[in-house]
Amino acid sequence: MNTWLSLLGGLALWAAHFLAAYAIASLVDISSYEHQAPLTWLLAGLTLACVLAAVALAVRAWRASRRPGLGGVFVPRLSALASTLAAIAIVWQSAPFLWRH
Amino acid sequence: MNGPPTPSETGFDTALYERFPTKGRRPKGELEQLEAIWCAPRRWEWITVINNNYVGVYYVGAAMLFFVLAGVLALLMRTQLALPMQGVLAQETYNQIFTMHGTVMMFLFAVPAVEALGVLLLPQMLGARDLPFPRLSAYAFWAYLIGGLAFFCSLFFGLAPNGGWFMYPPLTSTTYSPGINADFWLLGIGFIEISAIAGAIEIIVGVLKTRAPGMTLDKLPVFAWAMLVFAGMIIIAFPSVILATTLLELERALGWPFFDATRGGDPMLWQHLFWFFGHPEVYIIFLPAAGAMSTIVPAVARTPLVGHWLVVLAFLATGFISFGVWAHHMFTTGLPGVSVGMFSAASMAVSLPAGVQVFSWIATVASGRMKFNAPGLFVLGSLLIFVMGGLTGVMAAMVPFDWQAHDTYFIVAHLHYVLIGGMVFPLFAAIYYWTPMVSAHPLSERLGRWTFGLMFAGMHLAFLPMHLTGLMGMPRRVYTYAAGRDWEWPNLISSIGAFVFAAGVLIWVIDMIRNFRPFGFSEAGNVYGGGGLEWLPAGLYSTRSIPVVTSLYPLWDQKNLARDVAAGRYFLPGAPTGGRETLVTSPVNAEPQHLLRMPIPSGWHVWAAVFTAGFFLLLTVQAYAASVLSGVLAIVCVLRWCWFLDHPLPQQTVDVGAGIELPTYASGSSSTGWWAMVVTLVVGGMVLAMSVFSYVFLWSRSPDTWRPPPDTTSLAVATASAIGGGALALLARRQLGRPWLATAMVIAGGALLGLAFGVDLSSWRSIGLSPQASAQGAIVHAILAWQGFFVAVAAIMALYVLLRRLYGYVGPDRPATIELVGLFLAYTAGQGLVGLYVTRLFPAGLA
Ligand code: HEM
Ligand SMILES: [Cu+2]
């Protein structure tokens, strides 16, 4: 279980963040002006939380790669990189939205 | 390495691996017994065979048949378009033909072809005797073949769909598409998706649970990684298109207005649901092909894949990120501005993993000594074509450019570059590369070069000019064009190119007829020098014994492996239980867990496929009674097929080699059945999730027409009975010591689920919500219908358990059936609750 969590956790965070960002962006489009700022802050907060979580996963996996398991360093390294990638992707996809608002 | 000993995943002591290869000679008659158990089919048995060595070949063959058929349609179109104002095809026929060409290529060729490759290759690559559910893959194959052929034949009766391969309503609604042409598409494709999902379940469980011992994730072949991600993506993406086709069919057949704007529906819902599937579809097709490339490139370059783990990472990233881009097909539909920015960002990001793969292949080719044999040529050709397609794709991902190029021949050119480079050429590379594994002769090198040359040249001749015709403004999907706009030359060249391409395919067919000799007792063997287990000497039982794997390229790195495996010096050298069997191992470290007894051929899965196909086809021609009958027969066949599952063997444990004893029965998460059930439930959950999305989406289109939900009493009653039903069914497993009690609990659980469903349905009816009147009515009823379907299945399962109890098949020695039924019922309860609360609390609860 732990293996899959560290391998896919970061990317799953990315997916969750994507969905949330999509929902919030849609809400912003149909809501009145005074609701837009709080929604934007919500997304900003969410983005920060997801990025931090992904980075935490990456660090954890990187540490684990120093005590390799049966499958060697492969899985922990892969997990570390996957989570790092997810963190970058999360920033990347919320940038256009946060930039504009 | 220093430090504490590495923890085991299952408690299996991996030091036992040291016992292999065993010494000494194997007992007499062991190999003969294995051969007898896995014997070849005789006479009519070739229809009921389930061995993947056969089914895999059939499956690939059928996919290639559809490739040729859809190719013939392409030639017809190119003949029509070769010169301006031609009369080869009438407009309506042209519409049917381009729709069929696109649909058959995408749904009946591309996805099944790569899935077929998985069924054929995976057991050998993973060191299994067969995939865990051989009858399921056979069922998937027959359902696909019968359904696909019937679907294709609609063309001969002028009944073929004509709405384009993505079937946008309102064009495909009954107003603009009367007649049953569109229904053929909806039911036919919906049905074939079910077969694809069945295959995906098989692949996931196979890759996770039937690997050779020691094949930890770092030693999992790259092709298996690709197939794993591929199958996972099918599980996530296909439910969306199943839901979409069901909703549109409901609108057409019963008048439920999901997409009809006059009654609160919205055609954009179709586009969302379709492209949530449709874009990942491109990567779904591309991933296994990339997996094949990543296997073939090292073999022809004679060096390990450079950056193996980066390629795996790229697969994983593609698997996720490709879901974040569906709306880029809708840039021109006036989406809200901010979401366009997001989708555009994801669309650009998704080309990165593809880039990583391409660089890894190039680096591998550069670091090894490339041989320009037939697979090698196709590999190089694929790289070139795919990169060109990728470039035009990045262009189209930029929103302003897409506004210009949308719906012109530029897109047709782009899509064919990507698909042919990303999937067709790799597939041909795979066919040339792996033919010696299944056939007595390899394919001809000389003809292979011709095939490659003609296909490569034809491809560029046909599609390079289309970029130009597109930029000159020629729209796609037009059956002809007027002279005098400079479109003549590029169109003529395109048509010539199409025929050159076809000539290449023809030569390949000739080559196959001359050299392809499967199912024999001899195989050409490892002519290209690959490093994977699939090149071990093998018979119909796969390898004689199942090796302990210690390398990513076992045949390159493990000395004498082939010899020792063939001499039976590894796991499972014989058939300890006297039947077909394979080893089940753990998902991460591939530690042996138990022995899986496998079924032998029988006709039930074939009949099940026939009747399932019958159900959908008869539904299309509106023969409802016959259709229901066929559906019932299909269910009977499936139950009959499951009947002999879950029977403990007399030997509780057996020696699987070198004195290692493993159990012969398993339940819970170590068993393959549990994994299959969980994956199936994920499919159900995805359909539910997409329905909830549809619900919210439709509400956001006409919030003021949404009416308040029924009273809270019904809510309370339905909640209580759903929770009670699910809990009873789940707890039944603990009462197996008293079989009647356990059976009664399952039945009561099913009944309570039925009650919850009935209460919910009737409360909506009592406030007069009609499915035809409004989008709310339609979508609430759709969610209810999905739940009703699950409740019906749950009822059948409960009766099945009762029947098994009557035969004395329920008891503490066989928990698996009760456990899986319990899981299903508990899921049904949860699904019912989600539907219940979403439809009641949203949007009413917000106010
Ligand atoms: C050399 C072989 C092929 C030729 C000559 C060819 C030709 C064509 C032509 C002429 C069209 C119709 C353009 C229009 O009128 O808008 C088309 C559409 C299409 N083709 Fe192909 N094609 C080939 C191979 C493939 C393959 C291998 C695939 C997929 C794996 C594919 C998928 C499609 C799709 C999805 C469409 C769009 C259909 C639609 O507009 O609904 N084609 N092709
Ligand atoms: Cu796309």
UniProtKB/TrEMBL annotation, chain A:
The chain crosses the membrane at residues 41-62, 74-95. This is Uncharacterized protein. Keywords: Membrane, Transmembrane, Transmembrane helix.
